[in-house]
Specification:
single chain, 447 residues, mainly alpha
């Protein structure tokens, strides 16, 4: 089988499975979709859109018109193919064609059979997979400028690339030139970018909601290793006969440090570990441990394979992790008529599902309440109270036609009506509808 045919078949399988999710918008992809839609309407990121992630994350969603449904799933399948191909190219350079195809298959498998809200979303951690692999390969080949450039592009996707740099650095001045070149694109919005991505991100990282991060991190990492036992054991086998063990161990160590940033250990953070482990596991499989390792792949296959069948049969409505997405659809259906929208809470998928433009630069209420979304359904203590007050003062200069409070029904203390400074502004609005998880307001047409 030729390489082109192999990757074409791999893409076909990934696409078929991702299309099972074509009628779902997971919340973490609602955020970049909403930002990308505003950018396509002519708004500038960071100055006219508050966005706490680097710019290439929403820019990717612009490539297919910020459309949900099948365009989103085709784009996701293509990105998985890119990730698989990048991992395969490293394996091919170090070993050969057999390892290339195994690395590609393992990467695509790991990005398919996992928690849907993680593997379906082309998020910043997943987006670093091909960049990590490509920059590592360039550094291996001593291609200094290419390694620096790829690492610099990665910084425009995910700030965690900074913690992965030790495996990509080539000690030549031209490496630094390549790394800095992409950052020049941010000069026009440097102040706003620093505030939203780095200052806000550092507040987020310092204030974890996990009571015992060390214990939680160890437990979740061990669980991840057990779930991906085929890849982890295969990587151990592949590493054992490597003459350049230090280089691979450094890559794994940097990825482990990067995924601990923020002390939250979300499942999607572990995507940072996939490139070195899947590439090494491909070598482990090639060395003859295939029966055992292939048997261990049944763990994720059995756990998440049936969910694709359920979706294909139209049974996904019973999933608890889709309850809020279904409620957002119900809320979007009630927004009949023209006008701009403000969504209160972390419910950016309502922008996507309703098709309404954002009335303000705030796509969610975190910068307006000062309470991070990882806790605001149950906790009302702000991390950035002063910044939130300033942002609410800006909010009161705007006139959305619609307001959807998607937070108050879950945490009444953070309902939009509970903020004293917003009450005079809210007198211009009247409640027009409710769902189980939202309250909908519309601007009055007369005093």
């Amino acid at each position: 089988m030729t390489a082109r045919l192999y990757y074409a078949l791999l893409f076909a399988v990934v696409l078929l499975l991702r299309l099972c999710h074509r009628d779902i918008v997971w919340v973490e992809e609602g955020y970049p979709l909403a930002a990308a839609a505003e950018m396509l309407r002519g708004k500038a990121l960071y100055t006219e859109i508050w966005f706490d992630k680097p710019p290439l994350f929403p820019a990717f969603y612009m490539l297919f018109g910020a459309l949900a449904g099948w365009p989103l799933r085709v784009a996701g399948a293509l990105y998985v193919l890119l990730s698989a191909w990048a991992a395969g190219r490293v394996a091919a350079h170090v070993w050969g064609q057999r390892e290339e195809r195994l690395a590609a298959a393992l990467t695509a498998f790991a990005l398919t059979f996992g928690i849907p809200a993680s593997v379906m979303v082309i998020g910043p951690d997943l987006m670093l997979i091909p960049l990590q692999a490509a920059a590592f390969l360039a550094a291996w080949k001593r291609q200094a400028f290419a390694a620096g450039l790829l690492a610099g592009i990665g910084m425009l996707i995910n700030g965690k690339m900074l913690l992965l740099l030790p495996v990509m650095i080539v000690l030549r001045p031209v490496w630094l030139a390549g790394f800095l070149a992409p950052q020049l694109l941010l000069l026009p919005v440097a102040s706003a970018y620093w505030m939203q991505v780095w200052a806000w991100g550092s507040m987020y990282s310092r204030d974890t909601f996990i009571a015992n991060p060390v214990l939680e991190g160890l437990q979740r990492t061990m669980n991840w290793m057990g779930f991906h036992a085929a890849i982890v054991i295969g990587a151990a086998v592949g590493l054992r006969e490597q003459p350049a063990k230090r280089r691979w161990l450094l890559w794994i160590a940097c990825a482990l440090v990067a995924l601990t940033a923020g002390l939250r250990f979300s499942p999607r953070y572990y995507f940072l570990l996939l490139p070195p482990l899947t590439i090494l596991a491909a070598r482990g499989l090639a060395l003859g441990k295939r029966p055992l390792l292939l048997l261990l792949l049944l763990i994720p296959l059995i756990r998440f394979g049936p969910r694709y069948i359920e979706l294909a049969q139209g049974k996904g409505s019973t999933w608890s992790d889709l309850a809020m997405e279904q409620d957002s659809r119900a809320a979007a259906a009630l927004l009949k008529g023209e006008g701009t929208l403000l969504v209160w809470g972390y419910r950016p998928e309502i922008y996507v599902l309703s098709g309404k433009p954002a009335a303000t630069r705030f796509l969610d209420s975190q910068p307006l309440t000062g309470v991070f979304a990882d806790r605001h359904l149950t906790n009302s203590t702000p991390t950035a109270a002063a910044l939130a007050r300033t942002n609410r003062a800006e909010l009161m200069t705007t006139k959305p036609e619609w307001i959807v409070d998607g937070l108050g029904p879950y945490n009444p203390q953070l309902a939009i009506t509970q903020f004293e400074d917003l009450r005079p502004w809210l007198k211009a609005y009247v409640e027009t509808g409710r769902t189980q998880g939202t309250i909908i307001y519309r601007r009055r047409t007369s005093p």
